[in-house]
């Protein structure tokens, strides 16, 4: 067995970043040996665990520890990290497929995975020039670290492009923020947070900082007894953190947001929601089949709603596929990424995908009628409906529509259907 243990002494509280390169212990025997080809089999294993605990996770509003443990065992948390850092170097298309597969099983697991992978994408794409972040990614692969996200703060809702709290200090930095929501904050190994660059910086002059669990304390501000997505455990916290200046990503948040955070998050979230919608359609199809069998082959009246559900699911999948293709095509082109056309398109992906996903689950429920409306029984849509209703809220569609309104005035009408 080729076991090589590298001892690196970093991430200690008082360590400088070059020293940090010597303190994380990781064992290369845990490095991935499975190729990307077996990804779907690994996802299926995790999805099976997630599905078997989904009802309990929802009922108890608890972190889906079993499915995240399974994802760690299958090394799914590091699939998008480059191979040279210990990951599998898989792209956004593979990641969103995992979100979809998990969404069919357990919405909370899928959303946790989507949020984690969005943070990984920010580190991979914008931490290249930083030895601290490269080392963190190595450690993430070796230990299957789970990253949480903190952008929502105080009363400012989903206004991602403005921060109130600022990082303070020189070589050592501190940050204190009233984080309205940090999903799985207590279960995460690190928090990736936006902040104002400095005490005298404008609210939109933001940075993205990674704080490891040993760098911060979380004081609960409120709990998470929500309608759906109950397993995300999205409580509010006072986050008090300190670390090294090197923990700030070397690129401004404005760039990270436009190039990676917004498009990647919207693709990953939409894929998780599509998984929920697909699961609802599966249930509706099973209901209609059973009803048809019982009545000697004639379809129940609700079957037309199943047709609607299948059609809107197909539209949803096409929407994501087209957006994914566009993102992959231009992901290395900063000018194209920052273009109004791309930014508007990726913002509207979130709005349209959430609306279609809600419509799909609603149609699926109507196809089942009372059997779908009940909270018990094999055709209940209660959990799916409650989970999917988070989608227009999670960065409010109204806020996004208001933000892109000015851009809509500048855009022209395409001359061809293929433009
Ligand atoms: C399941 C889930 C998990 C989450 N996880 C995290 C997390 O891990 N980390 C994190 O930081 N955040 C997280 N969030 C928060 C999320 O990112 C948004 O910040 C939050 O959903 C917005 O909250 P809000 O509706 O109170 O605020 P707002 O966006 O302020 O919206 C409040 C109301 O105002 C309306 N509104 C807002 N702006 C406009 C406008 N310009 N024009 C017209 N109407 C407007 C909205 O429609 C809404 O009715 C999560 C949210 C959910 C649902």
In total, the number of domains comes to 3
- Beta-strand percentage? 5-15%
Shape: globular
Determine the N-to-C terminus distance: 54 Å
Q: Over all CA atoms, what is the radius of gyration?
A: 22 Å
In the CATH scheme, the class of the largest domain would be: Mainly Alpha
Describe the largest sheet: 3 strands, mixed
Structural class: alpha+beta
CATH homologous superfamily annotation of the largest domain: Butyryl-CoA Dehydrogenase, subunit A, domain 3
- Please mark out the parts with pLDDT under 50 across 5 or more consecutive residues, or reply none: 1-34
The number of helices is 13
CATH topology assignment of the largest domain: Butyryl-CoA Dehydrogenase, subunit A, domain 3
Number of strands: 8
Q: Helices and strands, in N-to-C order?
A: EHEHHHHHEEEEEEHHHHHHH
Mean pLDDT score, rounded?
A: 91
Q: Which ligands are bound?
A: flavin-adenine dinucleotide
